[in-house]
User: Fold these one by one.
Assistant:
Number 1:
Amino acid sequence: MTKQIFPSYLDKLSDVQREAVEYCSGPALVVAGAGSGKTRVLVAKMMHLIKLGYQPWTIMALTFTNKAAREMKSRIASELDGVKFRDLRVGTFHSVFLRIIRRFSDKLGFNRDFTIYDTSEQKSLIKKIIKDLSLDDKKYTPKICLSNISNAKNRLVSVEDYRNSDTLKKADKRNRLESLVDVYTAYQQRLFESNALDFDDILYYSNILLRDFEDVRQTLRNEVKYLLIDEYQDTNFSQYVLIQQLMGPQGLVFAVGDDAQSIYGFRGANLDNILKFEEAYPSTKIFKLEENYRSTKNIVNVANRLIQNNIRQIKKEVFSSRDKGEKVFVKECFSEIKEAEYLAQQVSEAHSRKHYSYRDIAILYRTNAQSRLLEQELRKRAIPFKIQGGMSFFAIKEIKDVMAYLKLINNPNDSEAIMRTINQPKRGIGSTSQERIMLLARERGYALSDIIADEKLLSQAGLNKGATKNVLQYNELLEALRTLDQNDLKSIVTKTIKLTGLYDFYCQGNDTESISQKENINELINGITQYEINQHENGEDAGLSDFLTDMSLVTDQDAEDDKDQDYVSLMTVHAAKGLEYPMVMIAGLEEELFPSAYSKSEKDLEEERRLFYVAITRAKEECIITHATSRYQAGYRTSSVESRFLKEIEGDGCEREKGYISDFSNDPDVERFQRKNHESFDRPSWQLQEARNYDRAPKYQDRYEATATKKNCRRLRKIDKTLDNPIYDNVDYGVYPGNRVKHPKFGFGTVIIVEGEGANKSATVEFETIGTKKLLLRFAKLLRLD
Ligand SMILES: Nc1ncnc2c1ncn2[C@@H]1O[C@H](COP(=O)(O)OP(=O)(O)OP(=O)(O)O)[C@@H](O)[C@H]1O
């Protein structure tokens, strides 16, 4: 092996990084601050172990994304001659353990070619179950059912455990969801019948394998000598137990993580796993990486000031040896529209005046919905951008159709794939026929794959002759597809697209939709070609089942950066984890948005704070943060209170700028006026101040599906009305001497005198164009501008 390169990887490390890499006598935890070089340490550790004589396949390294795994593998394989990509057992928890489950699938009663259901397949299955169990689909929504099932699996609660648990029963009763246990039972049963697993099952069944099968445990323990784990702070209970079962309490576990960046609590990540690492592995040695190599001093200091407000954390002093750099800049905007305009303008300026490339800039936000206006504003200025982690390619309808056929070739029992493809493209098997087939399957316990192949069963189901013939032809089509060579991936995919009729269905029209569908299908074929090349280069198999497995593991964070292209990246803060950009803008720092309206407890708030910490620490040189004082939500304009986190970051290295006057009317005159007079109007209007004083009503009911009470809705409308019509509905009209106002006919002016009472109240206004006028406020329709 290439010994001459070994010193170089150690040379690139700081003292403490090297100590961590070289320590190999027991479990270790590397507490790594943001930007402190976790990736470098993990790669070096792997090389070091290989140098010490560990065979590459005896080191298991678990990363958070497939992308990180690929990068790690290619760095190691390119630096170490003789080490092959395929020899490295590096991947996400899900991909590594999926391979293990396939290997031992017979122990679990699954066929080796099982399918992994994605979210839409899970939802579709749950909907059918809710219908079959005659449950109220308003109460038992797929989202609620799936999140409860996911929680149960991530806590390793089996269907039987669930049924026997008084605590869970009580909780479900309290939530009026007593039948959740039946939904869970049916869901697991149907997955099993379809020879399918969902994402959580991968870890769940891995745990079962290690717990219940002594021979599997021994085999794996003999194989895995060293375990490296990245992003340890985001492991959940199921992963925690899995690691312990695999390695034991004295095992050679090398965990790297940053408690301050634990942001997946909503998915079951348990911060205690890192906080209490030593309890699980008593002989642990802890290393702290505290130098942030990424960001300027100002950015690091502001981020530190924020995170010190969290109680649950491991103490560390993150510092930067770089310059102070620009101050972190916090900008108040009067509406989300103004905010988007401002950010787009900053991008323009950074590009033209500061010579940033677009690819150096990222705009981060808390929720996907915030991207729409940003996109609009960037488009207006012809700024190229890309939404990262948006709708997955594999969630596109036409791609799902092709994938469903491919899954069926691989796994004939996949009932979701049967129901998706049976009449897609249309072949005369309508919804009544489909329901009858499903009913027979449910009532008599037949597999769908058996029914569609059997004329007698189809007639028992009540299908007429025509429909029966069509179903049988569909089944023959599937049989024919299964005779194709599954190792010739490109050929099987192109033939499937043609033979199933999907090509004619999607690719014949000339309208924009058909063109885009055709492009997507072509993109799939291009992707497959690329996949075959990559697999080949890495010495890995590229058959149909390999492809399906790898695609089922693709996550939002796996998108490859296109290094040749220049565009601004837009993404949620979650999607930005692990990334870095010279300039980072963070939008929407408002209460109930960031922190999210859902974070009610102190624990939730701490997670939101960590999320903001992740956002700030993505920045290398510059960080701009914005918040809007009002936002259009659920059909109403509502006032927004600035995020509590903004107070927390105030101080050295942070500069704030208040917004200019509000523009609720979107009147170009008002806008022009604002621009002209912005210096003298740097305070939010009294209406906003007043609205802010309202006790916080749930504002984002649409987005968060929160159920606002009627009273709150009325209150929101009232605020909204006040904001949209700042003067007309106010009892005292809110006009005082000195106020700047706008009249629909007379234009801009200044109030000189206010006199009279109630309906007779009047104002004398000095207008810029027509001079002084006395107006009855009841009728005057004055718009107050300050
Ligand atoms: N010893 C070092 N000397 C100089 N630069 C380093 C050193 N270690 C890491 N870096 C650089 O610091 C930057 C941050 O490293 P990396 O992305 O691995 O950090 P990280 O710990 O994963 O950060 P985060 O958790 O915030 O995503 C990278 O550009 C990396 O090349």
Number 2:
Amino acid sequence: MPLIDIDALHKSYGETEVLKGIDLHVEAGEVIAIIGKSGSGKSTLLRCINGLETINSGAISVGGEQLVEDELHLRKLRLKVGMIFQQFNLFPHKTAGQNVMLAQQVVKKRRKAEAETKAREVMDRVGLGDKFDSYPDQLSGGQQQRVAIARALAMEPMALLCDEVTSALDPELVGEVLQVVRALAADGMTLLMVTHEMAFARDVCSRVVFMHQGRVHEAGPPSEIFANPKTPELRAFIGMAAA
Ligand SMILES: Nc1ncnc2c1ncn2[C@@H]1O[C@H](COP(=O)(O)OP(=O)(O)OP(=O)(O)O)[C@@H](O)[C@H]1O
């Protein structure tokens, strides 16, 4: 059974249907890039998987458990998938380490010592072992985003959803964050990432999903999607992205 199973997902905001029947099945260990024009529904799809948005119809399950919209269930589901956003959303008055410890203590009810051990382990994993006691404003944007990744990893999610995690960064800081994501992929983490980094999608992802007007318009391995796009919409998008 796929780790993330999405069937006939529909999502509207008011009268506007943003997701028009999405089917997507993600196996454990897959690294999927979601690409498409602004407004095609990419972020909304991730937010639905994480239970941040209610859905109108269809079904989403993670780890074999179906998303149903009662609060307790949604909270459990959010624990199974981590999400990383364009903005890092760190608490400015807490150190990097405390930021990584906090959700563990509040949500997972870990004791302080246990949360700290885990926080040190994941800070090491993102290459920031020496920044445990630094405050966010003492860190670069790339380092802050790596703290946000560490914070998600500390919750031991079954999959990570990444929503344009490099878009807010200065160009010279993009590489270090992608390097961390690349290492997670190599370690077997299941990743679903909305990205504008086409070279990264081509090199690292096992599958590329092209969204257009609320639907999965074309999907396949990067070799096919980039070298042999079948639809005019994908051809136009790739042409635009390369420009
Ligand atoms: N909370 C909301 N209320 C109303 N409309 C929304 C809301 N969030 C998104 N939308 C609309 O839904 C559509 C899809 O938005 P979404 O952010 O999912 O697209 P996207 O493909 O991720 O775009 P981008 O690349 O610009 O982030 C857009 O037309 C957007 O204006």
